């Protein structure tokens, strides 16, 4: 079942990419007490994710924070080392990278996709959500192959 607006995020283990290395976090603890603009990409270094999705959130970080967002986070079914390298390669210090290496978060929110045709296996769909104290306030799920409603620009328009 896909998560919906008004639902509390499921509590799963994720791995935060930090300068000191991977740090395990529980999603319930990470999202507690703050407003987080969360977006999901099918994979770090993939074309749309690298050319448009992450750069949009990097460019709009200050605008999002000016509208009450405490933190911007990206999740992908990649390991924390890959997400940390991708963060550095894109000067994305304002975006917290939350690795979902086993796809537990994507599965728990019901937003997986089968990328086997591209050699990617099970991945998280492209989506964005505004999460306030662990509760989903906005949810924007892209149609396969699309990139519009999960963008930073679209999210800004919802605030």
Structural summary, described in words:
- The protein is of the alpha+beta class and 159 residues long.
- It is built from six helices and nine strands.
- It has helices spanning 27-30, 47-59, 61-66, 80-89, 104-108, 152-158, and strands at residues 13-18, 21-26, 35-40, 71-76, 95-99, 112-114, 122-124, 127-132, 135-141.
- The strands form two sheets. A seven-stranded mixed sheet has the order 2-1-5-4-3-8-9. A two-stranded antiparallel sheet has the order 6-7.
- The radius of gyration is 14 Å and the shape is globular.
- The two termini are 26 Å apart.
- The mean pLDDT is 91.
User: What's the pLDDT, averaged over the residues?
Assistant: 91
- Roughly how much helix do the residues carry, as a percent range? 25-40%
How many DSSP-defined strands? 9
Output the structural class: alpha+beta
The string of secondary-structure elements, in order, is: EEHEHHEHEHEEEEH
Ends: how far apart? 26 Å
Strands in their spatial order, largest beta sheet: 2-1-5-4-3-8-9
Using only C-alpha atoms, the radius of gyration works out to: 14 Å
- Low-confidence segments, given as residue ranges, are none
Query: Quick one: overall form?
Result: globular
Helix run count: 6
> Major β-sheet, in short?
7 strands, mixed
Strand content: 25-35%
């Amino acid at each position: 079942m896909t998560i919906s607006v008004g639902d509390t995020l499921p509590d799963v283990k994720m791995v935060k990419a930090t300068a000191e290395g991977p740090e395990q976090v529980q999603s319930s603890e990470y999202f507690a007490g703050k407003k987080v603009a969360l977006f999901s990409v099918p994979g770090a270094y993939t074309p749309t994710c690298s050319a448009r999705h992450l750069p949009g959130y990097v460019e709009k970080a200050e605008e999002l924070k000016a509208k009450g967002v405490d933190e911007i986070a990206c999740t992908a079914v990649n390991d924390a080392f890959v997400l940390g390298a991708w963060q550095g390669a894109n000067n994305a210090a304002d975006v917290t990278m939350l690795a979902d290496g086993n796809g537990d978060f994507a599965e728990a929110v019901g937003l997986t996709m089968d990328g086997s045709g591209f050699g990617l296996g099970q991945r998280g769909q492209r989506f964005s959500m505004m999460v306030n104290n662990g509760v989903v306030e906005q949810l924007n799920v892209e149609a396969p192959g699309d990139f519009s409603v999960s963008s930073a620009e679209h999210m800004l328009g919802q605030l």
